[in-house]
Fold Protein ZBED8.
Amino acid sequence: MIRVVSKRSFFCDSLLETTKASDVFEMIKKFFIAQNVDWKTKLGSICTDGTPAMLGNTSGFAALIKKECSHVIITHCVLHRHALASRTMPTFLKEVMSTCVKIINFIRARALNHRLFKKLCQEMGSEHEVLLYYTEVRWLSRGQVLKRLFELREEVLLFLKTKKIHCMNILKEDFVEGLAYLADIFTHLNEINLSLQGPAVTIVDASERLKGFR
């Protein structure tokens, strides 16, 4: 049984110019050669994200590794899998998500609207006073963003009315149910993904947590 896992950075460097797959591959290859490491026989697996530079079929980093080391196992970062899966939602949930993003951006991304909405929430004695920023890059916070919107949905509706913005969708029961579902499922995804990170998390821990989530 493994009792202790020691995490050490073996190699870390920056690309000064282009960040093509061939640049990454050559940099890593040169490092191993300089260290007299026979990486072609010692390398067992590599884990990457889903960018084209990493996973391109012919010229991606993984493909270049495979050409030199055919037995290596290529795995995909489990955190990025969930981000990609969120893009294949049913049409209705995609529409709910799209509407939520538009509402959040209208209020949160404009300084005046943000201040007015905050004042409205203060006057109404709301539990929260602001919406949270939504960005595609910070997908791990998506659950928190949607949860906040759900909790402030009445304040949001009132604010949109003062701005004469027609948004009857958020009054519909199915929309509210869709928003609640998205907020709930993404919150759970956030929690499970965050639990998979950290220096003390082993593959056994990660496997058990994923099985428990399912």
